[in-house]
Fold this sequence. Notes:
Chain B: Keywords: Lyase. Chain B: Pathway: Porphyrin-containing compound metabolism. The complex is a heterodimer of chains A (about 150) and B (about 160). By secondary structure, chain A is an alpha+beta fold. Chain A has helices spanning about 5-15, 30-35, 40-50, 80-90, 115-130; strands spanning about 55-60, 70-75, 95-100, 105-115, 135, 140. In chain A, strands 3-4-2-5 form a 4-stranded antiparallel beta sheet. Chain B has 2 domains: about 5-50; about 70-145, Alpha-Beta Plaits. In chain B, about 35% of the residues lie in helices and about 30% in strands. Chain B is built from 5 helices and 5 strands, in the order αααββαββαβ. In chain B, helix 2 (about 25-30) packs across helix 3 (about 35-50). The chains are: A alpha+beta (about 150), B alpha+beta (about 160). At the A-B interface, helix 3, strand 1, strand 2, strand 3 and strand 4 of A face helix 2, helix 3, strand 1, helix 4 and strand 3 of B.
Amino acid sequence: MTEQLSDLDRQLINRLQDDLPLVSHPFTALGESLGLSEQEVVDRIRRLRDDGLLTRFGPFFDAEALGGAFCLCAMTVPEDRFEAVLTKVNAHAEVAHNYQRDHSLNMWFVLATENRGDIMRVAKDIEHDTGLEVLLFPKKREFFVGFRVNA
Amino acid sequence: MKLDPKDRAIVEATQAGLPLVPQPFAVVAESLGMPEEELLERLASLKARGIVRRIGAAPNHYRLGMTANGMSVWDVDDAVVDTLGEQIGALPFVTHCYRRPRALPVWPYNLFAMVHGADRAEVLSKRDRIKDLLSDACRANDILFSTRILKKTGMRLRKKKG
């Protein structure tokens, strides 16, 4: 563990991975169970977010249900061109995540577009910009995961 | 799925997060010029339709000490990949699990399971548990550790013109 977190902070982080109720005062019940006022809950969440322990507070959308499309893509980028290619790839607003990985396919990114047809267009643009082949790994099926980080 | 203009405005107003105040929905509703009750009803409907998955927070894996992440990839018999995929997704340390197409000849793997851990050794021991579970149904596997985050912005709906 790299952070010194209070037990209360840990409980709060764990509880915030559940679903808050859609009510006017969504923090009240959570606060009662932790012995905090709703304002104290809010202040603590803000501090955790400002400290970077929580990345975001709010609704989590299923972007595909919104009509968006996603596709995992991979490229084999020569090491001596890596930074130049990276600049060109990341310049596309549709590149939502991009990771370097230790494999001959060493650049893995996710394209996120509002329309399904745009995935192929952006992939072709990236191939054109970089002169490198983009392999597409669209999801065929998503398996339910019950993963939680235990803070 | 098409969103009506009010639902779309709700998504645009909240996708970067909710205001951290005791009554966040009231603040958003006011900014959208709709009653809080209507906003809550519309969010409930978006949830019932699967567009909103939940309201809450996302922890930062890295800051919580989960600094290693490995994309484990598996070449699994097509006849059983969906059954086994369900079992692997249910493992407590798997954060994402997908069936994807192979890209032969360079990429024989059709099952992807993301594994997080405090270090590579922990990720590798978790990988071994997946290997045990797949047993003879798996012909080959690999694990790709991330060495650098190159970009992480997430998806954003763009504002409609006009």
